Amino acid sequence: MRVSWLLLSIWLVANANAASASTRLYEDMSVLTSSEHQGREAGSPTPNITAQFLHERFQSLGIEVNYQSFEFKNGFFSKKLGHNVIATLPCTVDQCGKKLVITAHYDHLGGRENSFYAGANDNATGTAALLAIAKVLKEQTRFSDVIFLATDAEEKGLYGAKHYVSETDINGYALNINLDMLAINNRNTLYALHDKKAKKYIEQFKQQENPFKVFSTSSQFRLHKKLNDNRINWHKASDHYAFSLKKIPYIYFGMGIDDKHHTKKDTLDNMNFEKYQAVVESISDFIVSLAQIPLDSTN
Ligand SMILES: [Zn+2]
């Protein structure tokens, strides 16, 4: 009797934790896509409301966080200041592997308070996922430093990610995992484009019990064929490209072609939150498992 009460209370606590994680993910998505954030336009003289929100959220999780500012070209003649938000969970063992950096761009197309681009899928999904994964990973043993990099000015030309890698000693890095557009739709498929050197890691992800299909490839050609669409150069389409230019292995997770991409219909109401949540949980499990081994980019 006692044992079953104990099991029941463990079950209740586990479910309460899962429920609160899901509520928090929904709340973060709501904030990022709200009219206050006005479509998260890239660049501002000082960190904008979205950068400040992310900074506060990482801080409230007890994770060290900093801004990294950079200049970027905005049109032919003008420049703007962008602000990456960088949170770091340090390695917790003596023999640390190389670093793991998880990226998601928080900027989108902007707009005005009463008419703005919410950018729910692109890329509030990746940004809110960073917060959810950081919360889980904070409680785990880590064999590598894990860096959560929320980039600015991706939409303008991957400027935040390019600036980050320009300031970085690439030898210290094992892997970049880039999250951009995670709201999988009725195809129920998560796409993973990866560097050849990251193949063993993606195989590990595919061995998990994921409640959706995973299509992974290092071949742009195969991805075009699978999506029946060859308009997008996926190797260059998001922040992972900045890491690949520096020879850092990468995995890019995304949902493929979105017919609401860069329209005002890319809203939280128009995406399937449960499917998105399942994607975040799977990627979170994957990153926890990667953190349990000393990573090295050469093996
Ligand atoms: Zn994007």
Automatic annotation (TrEMBL):
Report keywords, A-Z.
Answer: Signal
Kindly give the Pfam families that the UniProt entry links to this protein.
Answer: Peptidase_M28 (PF04389)
Which residues constitute the signal peptide according to the record?
1-18
Query: Where does the source fall among the domains of life?
Result: Bacteria
Pinpoint the Peptidase M28 domain residues.
84-286
PANTHER family registered for this protein in UniProt: METALLOPEPTIDASE M28 FAMILY MEMBER, PEPTIDASE M28 DOMAIN-CONTAINING PROTEIN
**What's the name of the protein?**
Peptidase
Task: List the taxonomic lineage.
Answer: Bacteria, Pseudomonadati, Pseudomonadota, Gammaproteobacteria, Alteromonadales
